[in-house]
Amino acid sequence: MTVFLQSLINGIISGSYYAVLGIGLTVTWGVLKMINVAHGDFYMLGAYLFYTFSRIAGLPVVPSIIMGVLGVFLVGMLLQRGIIAHALGREAFGNSPFIITLAIGIMLENIAQIIWGENNRGVPYFNETVFEFGGLTMAAQRLIVAAIAFATLIAVMILIKKTRFGWAISATAQDRFSATLMGINTNRIYMVTFGLAVALAAVAGCILAPIYGINPWMGGSVQLKSFVVCIVGGLGSVGGSIVAGILLGIVESFSTQFFGSGWQNVIAYSLVLVMFWVRPEGIFGKKH
Amino acid sequence: MNRLVKFFDGSKNKMILSALFFLVLLLIPIVLRISGYENESYVEGVLILCMMWAAMTLSWDLLMGYMGIWSLAQQVFFGIAAYTSSMMNYYLGMSPWLGFLIAPIVAAVVGGLVAIPVLRLKAAPYIIIATMCLGEIVRLVFTNLVDFTRGELGFWQMEAFDDVFGINMNGADKIPYYYLIFIIFSAITLVCSLIAKSHNGLAMKAIRDSQEAAESLGVNSTEIKIKIFIISAYMAGFCGVFYAHYMKILTPTDMFSQSMMTEFIAMDVFGGIATTRGPVFGAFFLTIIMESLQGLDKYKLLIYAAILMITTLLLPNGVMNSSRTLKLSLLGRLTKHGRTESDIDAEAGNG
Fold it and tell me: CB–CB of A277 and B120 under 8 A?
């Protein structure tokens, strides 16, 4: 029972940041109608910026996280306006935004490699305390991760559902042309949405850096897992992504428990194939 | 003769150009040997890589360029064949030549299996995600089955091909390997252009442009998709076997990770999709550029990314398909945003 509870809690905690990552991709998909294969690399960039501000510049943790996320937000907006915007809406493979984001991913990885080197970088835990109750152990760091992740999720939900800016995003996602007629500057919406989406990846990168360490290739597996979350939750559905993220976390934590640590990703990715087979539109996606 | 002309994009000039290209490739080692050029084996090594990647990119272009299935799992077929051949060699002591018989068939079977989940999906992003996950699953399985595949360690120091007809294949002299890959490359080029010009090729293009319309005209899209997946995987398998016994190093990360697929994408997109000359040009150009930038190893991927981005934004149809775009922009009539290639075609009276 303790093992079960421990796995469940671990699952929910790692699931919470899968949800944060998945939402970023889902929003990009829903609004800009493109898939972003550089999402994992923005996650990596966020972690590196956090490392730079906190370890090299010596700032305290909270300002470094904020600076790191803001930095990625700006880089994301610049890349969207400067490069991706020109390819949006193109359908053929050779000129699609997909190729552009692929190139952006390679570029970010290489830049990180040049600036910060290929070695693993570490950031100390925000808080070293370890709680124990009833046989369950829980590092304070993991609780902080979960708390920030859930706070971010709630903030995103509020932003999308309750603010004028969120309504503008939803309107643009539904129909760009009508949104333009309503006086919404859709180009700006696209730019900010993309920035927000990659900033979410950066949030996950910052809060997870102490646990997993930082290297230029850390985005690869995160990228695919964000895709898993998107597909299982239904591409374009924010609420679905949250549920799917936590579900993925729990599935992973239990499969590590039962099959050993090499196999949890195999199971996570197989989930996507099963999902495509049974319900391609995702758990919460709309049929179309 | 007319049929032959048709294989090479329908023009006599292009056919002469292709023939010339293959003739030059055929003669390069002989010329180098006779002239006694000191870096002979280096040049041959680069050309071997060029031909191998060109063959791989061509096999993938059948799926992506002609049929519009954005499958990102081509490296899986390549890797599976390489692994099959080296495992047969390592565990059963079979000759690497037998790998050419068996491994591509294994790759083709895997191709058929990959086709099944992909067939159910129509939207491009779904196919991208599904095939990316498939590739990653294969990589993890090969990493985790340590007893069987030696895990992350991979296979090292595999046997070279056995000597045949008194030709020494130990790899010290690259010429036998050069001609081996030359044969594979020309065969794959021929098969790809044959398929593209055939009845099936037209059906493939119809599926790419609109699956519903193609089906309404009596194209059996399921059958063609499975067929092309199998053929494409089979061809990739030959390259895989060659790679295994030429490079002699196999690790799951090298063979199955997305970075190799990225190279194929870059080569194909750069050269021009849905043509025979595009992937060949892209593979040769990028491989040679990358080889000559060895000193800038650190920035290699950055240059790759930049090339990919610039081609996508400025020459969306690849270099080989953009002569008209280039001509127009050189004439000062820069292609404005929003105008498609077909508009330019129409303007040039060439549509």
Answer: yes
User: In terms of Cα–Cα distance, which of B77, B109, B102 is closest to B226?
Assistant: B109
Across-strand partners of B249? B156
Contacts of the segment B199-205: beta carbons below 8 A, 24+ positions apart: B200/B224, B200/B227, B200/B228, B201/B66, B204/B62, B204/B66, B204/B67, B204/B228, B205/B66, B205/B67, B205/B274
- Chain A closest-CA separation from residue B313 CA (Å): 7
List the structure tokens of B207: 């599926």
What does residue B134 show for φ and ψ, rounded to 5 degrees? Answer: -60, -45
**CATH number of the domain enclosing A27:** 1.10.3470
- Structural element, H or E, at residue B303: helix B300-314
| C-alpha closest to that of A89 among A97, A81, A101, A80 | A97
Cross-chain Cβ contact B312/A263 below 8 Å: no
Which domain covers residue A133, as residue numbers?
A: 2-278
- The amino acid at B62: L
Which of A264-268, B107-111, B329-333 shows the highest mean pLDDT? B107-111
Question: Whole-prediction pTM value?
Answer: 0.85
Rounded to 5 degrees, φ, ψ at A136 are -90, 135
Report angle CA B105, B195, B2 to the nearest 5 degrees.
Answer: 140
Interface residue of B113, B129, B205 to substitute, partner A, most A CBs within 10 Å = B129
Nearest to A232 by CA among A193, A194, A270, A288: A270
In a domain, A85, yes or no: yes
Q: Quick: pLDDT tens for A54-68.
A: 888 878 888 888 888
Total domains in chain A come to 1
Q: What is the pLDDT of residues B68-95, one digit of tens each?
A: 788 888 889 999 998 888 888 888 877 7
Between strands B249-250 and B155-156, the pairing is antiparallel
Q: Spell out which residues of chain A touch residue B314, defining contact as CB-CB under 8 Å.
A: none
Strand, coil or helix: B217: coil
Please indicate, yes or no, if residue A286 is contained in any of the structural domains.
no
Looking at beta carbons, which residues of chain B come within 8 Å of A270?
133, 137
Cα-flanking dihedrals φ and ψ of residue A130, to 5°?
Answer: -120, 125
Domain residue limits, chain B: 39-258
Q: What ipTM was predicted for this assembly? A: 0.84
Instruction: Provide φ and ψ at A216, rounded to 5°.
Output: -60, -20
Candidates B208, B195, B248; CA nearest to B86 is B248
Is residue A283 included in any domain, yes or no? no
> What span, in angstroms and rounded, lies between the C-alpha atoms of B131 and B117?
9
